């Protein structure tokens, strides 16, 4: 079951034309999670990219922070119909992480501390479209928002931006993750309102 913070309000789409159809604008940052919030000590945090051949590339926290980072300002859109505009993050581009990864895979399964998973086409992680984000609004990313680090894929519904990310598994065939297996859309484009299977 999702958990949502109390009392966030919004405006309808007609007063915020930059929103995808069916979305409402919020100035809060609602908290929605599929389960309890993991608390991951930084000295135990790891991110692993596992290719379809079994090769693994792993970064610890200090190695992640040593990589080139970017400040990213993007709109985010939740499948529960809230949108937050102009959010500012800092993180490492997936282009950087995949520089030395050899793969023929077309899909990725993101894995998180706590067991959450979500599937993403590999091409949606490249060309400046996705990051491992560890700051929000100039502060370390709070655990309830996915800290210490989360996946950030702002052009897709926000359930694809897996909180507490710890692994990216390369896949030759697409497979559903947690919410996709429960009936959510396999892709999740907010501008096409791809909320559920069949949308």
TrEMBL record:
SUPFAM superfamilies (alphabetical): Oxidoreductase molybdopterin-binding domain
Secretion signal, residue range per the UniProt entry: none
Superkingdom of origin: Bacteria
A Pfam entry, by short name: Oxidored_molyb
Gene3D superfamilies: Oxidoreductase, molybdopterin-binding domain
Region (Disordered): 1-22
InterPro entries membership: OxRdtase_Mopterin-bd_dom, OxRdtase_Mopterin-bd_sf
Domain Oxidoreductase molybdopterin-binding: 35-179
UniProt name for this protein: DMSO/TMAO reductase YedYZ molybdopterin-dependent catalytic subunit
Organism, as annotated: Actinoplanes octamycinicus
């Amino acid at each position: 079951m999702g958990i949502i913070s109390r009392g966030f309000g919004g405006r309808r789409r007609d007063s915020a034309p930059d929103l995808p159809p069916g979305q409402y604008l919020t100035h809060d940052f609602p908290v929605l999670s599929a389960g309890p919030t993991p608390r991951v000590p930084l000295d135990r945090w790891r991110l692993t990219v596992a290719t379809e051949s079994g090769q693994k590339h792993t970064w610890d926290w200090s190695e992640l922070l040593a990589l080139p980072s970017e400040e990213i300002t993007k709109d985010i859109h939740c499948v529960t119909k809230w949108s937050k505009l102009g959010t500012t993050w800092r993180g490492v581009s997936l282009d950087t992480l995949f520089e030395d990864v050899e793969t023929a895979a077309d899909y990725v399964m993101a894995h998180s501390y706590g067991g959450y998973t979500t599937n993403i086409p590999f091409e949606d992680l490249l060309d400046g479209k996705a990051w491992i984000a560890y700051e929000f609004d100039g502060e370390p990313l709070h655990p309830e928002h996915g800290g210490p680090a989360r996946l950030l894929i702002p052009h897709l519904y926000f359930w694809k931006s897996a909180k507490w990310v710890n692994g990216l598994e390369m896949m030759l065939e697409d497979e559903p993750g947690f919410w996709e297996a429960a009936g959510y859309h396999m892709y999740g484009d907010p501008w096409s309102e791809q909320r559920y299977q069949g949308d």
